[in-house]
Amino acid sequence: MALTGIQIFKLLPKTNCKECGVPTCLAFAMNLASGKAELDACPYVSDEAREQLAEASAPPIRPVVIGNGVRKLTVGGETVQYRHEKTFFNPTGLAAQVTSDISEADLAAKLTAWNALQFERVGLNLRPELIALKDAGDADAFAARAKQIAETSEFGLILMSDDPGAMTAAVDATKFKRPLLYAATDANVEACGQLAKDNDLPLAVKADSVEGLVALTDKLTEMGLKDLVLDPGSREIKQSLEDLVAVRRAALKDGNRAVGFPTITFPCEMTGSLDMEAVIAGMYIAKYGGIVVLSDFTGDTLFPLLLERLNIFTDPQRPMTVTEGIYEIGNPDENSPVMVTTNFALTYFIVSGEIEGSRVPAYLLIKDSEGLSVMTAWAAGKFAGDDVGMFVKKCGIADKIKHQEVIIPGYAAAIAGDVEEELPGWTITVGPREAAHIPGFLRSR
User: Fold this and answer.
1) Which residues lie below 8 Å from residue 227, measured CB to CB, with a gap of 6+?
2) Residue 294's closest CA among 267, 260, 322?
3) What are the beta bridge partners of residue 231?
4) I want to staple 234 with a disulfide (CB 3.0 to 4.6 A). Which of 23, 38, 240, 340 is the partner?
5) How confident is the model at residue 98 (pLDDT cuts 50, 70, 90)?
């Protein structure tokens, strides 16, 4: 059981040093008990107390690591029910399912195609992380396909089998990749638990209800297993969502450690349509799937899910930004127009999209405004005329063009005079207030 704030306070040094960021040790203890602080923030806690406080300082939903290498995935570790309360930390893992009766050549082709599904957005490389291999009844084929995935691809692996023998052979071939074993049930909990424990691997737990999960997780934690992933078992959309919400609430609001683990969901088993799978997966990314298993990866269904995931798992207190610098749109030359705006990601994508739509090659200068939009940045002094002028001088755009004209956003027209003072000899043109008017503005020049 998690410790109360008073119990934690008794184990703290009681110096009220304020180095943790709060005025008193009692306040820090209360924050620690509610998951709003990290134990490492206290520089004076003793080793003995740290050991006793480990449970209280751990996230109410345990973080679980699956895989190794560049696509290593951490799921769980969440501390709040709703994103606006603080933030969600570890993005939902996206998996595609294959059965072990697939041929070696066909699997190789799938791996190549799926590996190519990588998208750059806001300077990030967005891609899926996992492949769920389902045992089709042949233990040798299951182990062989598992080994092929582990050795020839960057994807993490979920091994799905009810046969302990098949699972053991697949684990022997792939344990270096740290696969997730799916799944311990009432019928095989001891065997699956022992296999996971012997190989130090994460284990999924499947029951027919949330209540059924508790008995299984209690048994597995008594065996010494900590890295568990929960499947409440429902494949009906409404019931499945209710189960995930119940698990999340029990872990966060009630402090129930028996369900304090990430979840795995299977849209691939809820519908026969890949488009509908994507809709269900979108629901799980928001509430509250740690892993989502699809029947396939295709660009038109995967890309929207990756973007949703990026937005949901971005700290709402820290806006998404793009890197400050010069962005070339449509192969501009030395005579192309130069526009400047803020580094708020949404602003960048809207403005760059409208420039592309105009078919007029241009340079877009992105100035660091701490992720604020044009109006907000101007009001906060993050997009002031002297700063913008200094940025234009230092960014290197003068070496790429023959003219001396820069177009500023219409909503920042008030800074035009200050930009002119900072850029003597330059022409400062005020552009449209609305991004939708950019194409017409550029084409009419």
Assistant:
1) 62, 64, 65, 196, 201, 202, 203
2) 267
3) 206
4) 240
5) very high
For residue 358, give Cα distances in angstroms to 183, 348, 364: 53, 15, 13
Q: By three-state DSSP, how is residue 289 classified?
A: coil
The backbone torsions φ and ψ at residue 268, rounded to the nearest 5 degrees and listed phi first, read -65, -20
Per the CB < 8 A criterion, the answer to whether 378 and 390 are in contact is no
Which token pair is 268? 């691939």
Quote the CA–CA distance of 305 and 274 in Å, as a whole number.
Answer: 12
Here the tokens at position 390 are: 């200094």
Are 190 and 212 in contact by the 8 Å Cβ rule? The answer is: no
CATH code at 64-312? 3.20.20.20
DSSP annotation of 430 reads E
With a CB cutoff of 8 Å and minimum separation 6, the contacts of 239 are: none
Instruction: Supply the CATH classification number for the domain 5-57.
Output: 1.10.15.40
* The pair of three-digit structure tokens given for residue 296, joined into one six-digit string: 């396939």
| Cβ–Cβ under 8 Å, residues 389 and 398 | no
Which residues have CB under 8 Å from 126's CB, separation 6+?
Answer: 118, 119, 120, 303, 306, 307, 309, 310
Residue holding tokens 């755009």?
A: 397
**Do 342 and 366 form a contact (C-beta atoms < 8 A)?**
yes
pLDDT (tens digit per residue) in 366-390: 999 999 999 999 999 999 999 999 9
Identify the residue whose tokens are 């107390």. 49
CATH 3.40.50.11600 correct for 325-443 = yes
**Residue 293 forms beta bridges with which residues?**
95
DSSP string, 354-365: HHHHHT--EEEE
* pLDDT tens digits, 2-59: 577 888 899 899 999 999 888 999 999 888 877 677 788 898 988 888 877 776 567 8
**CA dist 378 → 71, 219, 342, 386 (Å):** 39, 58, 10, 12
CB count, 10 Å around CB of 103?
A: 10
Q: Residue 55, class by beta-carbon neighbours within 10 Å (0-12 exposed, 13-18 middle, 19+ buried)? A: exposed
Q: How far is CA 298 from CA 159, 277, 435, 442, in A?
A: 22, 12, 31, 36
- Domain definitions of the chain by residue range: 5-57, 64-312, 325-443
